[in-house]
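Tokens in:
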């Protein structure tokens, strides 16, 4: 099983440590955070958008197609009463010279995004409590979310 360590650097900041990288998150000012990083919920959409973007980029690179002007926008629509995200729209902007014969194929390629597939067919989640096996990570000074080289 692959694992990722999650730490709490201070305030409402939460950081994920995986493969030598640290991904900071924070809450917006309006939610009591310092607004120094994406919220975990926004990071989910960033993951989805960058995954879809990678599939578009690789499609073009594998066919030696120019990627100048290639871009993707992710937009969400929420339900009025609950605020629940009801629609996620991925808008792929193709370069002007993009060959028409590849238009449907690149959309099929982007549709294979692994993050999107995980959301559409979610795994089983397990939540368990265990006793801590190492000392807690001390909080960071105000205004910092991640210290260089800091791992739990």
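Residues out:
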């Amino acid at each position: 099983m692959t694992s990722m360590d999650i730490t709490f650097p201070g305030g409402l900041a939460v950081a994920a440590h995986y493969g030598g990288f640290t991904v900071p998150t924070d809450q917006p000012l309006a939610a009591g955070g310092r607004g120094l990083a994406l919220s975990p919920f926004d990071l989910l959409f960033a993951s989805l958008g960058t995954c879809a973007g990678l599939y578009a980029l690789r499609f073009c690179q594998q066919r030696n197609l120019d990627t100048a002007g290639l871009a993707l926008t992710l937009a969400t629509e929420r339900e009025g009463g609950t605020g629940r995200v009801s629609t996620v729209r991925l808008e792929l902007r193709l370069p002007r010279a993009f060959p028409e014969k590849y238009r449907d194929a690149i959309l099929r390629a982007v549709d294979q995004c692994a993050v999107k597939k995980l959301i559409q067919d979610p795994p089983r989640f397990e939540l368990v409590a265990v006793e801590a096996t190492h000392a807690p990570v001390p909080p960071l000074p105000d205004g910092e979310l991640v210290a260089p080289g800091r791992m739990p």
